Amino acid sequence: MICLDALRKFNYANYSTIMLQEKNIPKRIVIYPRDIENITGRKGRTAQRLLQTIRQVFEKEKFQFVTVQEFCVFTGIDEETVRACMVD
Fold it and tell me: Hey, what's the torsion of the CAs at 81, 83, 84, 88, to 10 degrees?
């Protein structure tokens, strides 16, 4: 059995920091309308329509996310440029 005292004493904040340092985890893999606004300079509704168009092209459902890679393929913008403009 797991000792409950050991679990209570475990420092989860320190553990998660160590795990993030060991793995190279990307910040985000999906793109949102606000990101598209920052990248293209278009308004919010236009950014939403662009995401909707990308979903249709990649045959995705309404609830499915659009990845940064899919956005880059569709728009022809370099992924590094897109990631530099993304809001955290």
Answer: 160
| Amino acid at site 86 | M
Global pTM value: 0.69
With a CB cutoff of 8 Å and minimum separation 6, the contacts of 47 are 33, 34, 36, 37, 40
Residue type, 21: Q
Mean pLDDT by 10 residues, the chain (88 residues): 54 56 72 94 95 96 94 94 85
Q: Any idea which residue has 């920091």 for tokens?
A: 17
Cα–Cα dist 75/69, whole Å: 10
- Count Cβ atoms below 10 Å from residue 50 Cβ, excluding itself: 20
